[in-house]
Amino acid sequence: MPAATDRLFFAVRPDARTASRIESVAQALRKNHGLRGKSLGPERVHVTLHLVGDFAGGIPTGVLDDALAAAGPVAAHASPFDAFFDTLASFTRKRRNMPLVLLGHDSVQGLSKLQQALLSALVRAGLATDSGAPFVPHLTLLYDDRLMAPQAIEVPAWHVAELLLVRSLLGRSRHEVLARLPLGACARPLTICLRTNSTTERRGTA
Hints:
The protein is an alpha+beta fold. The chain contains three helices and twelve strands. β9 and β10 (174-182) form a beta hairpin.
């Protein structure tokens, strides 16, 4: 079976200024705690809401179309919100190369609400199954072998105003935003910029 080359997922991510400040937090943690893991970098700072799937040789156009058709109404009927993380911790599902992440509590309820609406739409479209596993909103800073106990941390909040469909080029540490779906756009025209491997299409819907 061919190895996967592309990953498709829905996410939100901070504006460039906030992403840069979060990257500074990651670098300070590396220095102060002797962490060796490389940070993701400001251009890849994000919160994953749902993984659509991994694909070999590119993402099928049909999958892209179905994903956008399912997510469009979710974004259009959602309201923009603020996201704020206040806790630093390691995810300990494995002993090495553990994700060091930012977590939140009441301040990330907007992320949970958006994720649940998106998951329901993707299940109806046949692009997801609901395993019943709880969604834990988190933002990964880096991966490291050292375990960091949960602790309070100050990082900037940001205003979430769009849902992103993102392509990750596996093994190349690179993300491409394929579509931006504005939140709360139900009452105004929605324009989606969809990038494929070779072309860029602009689609407008009333």
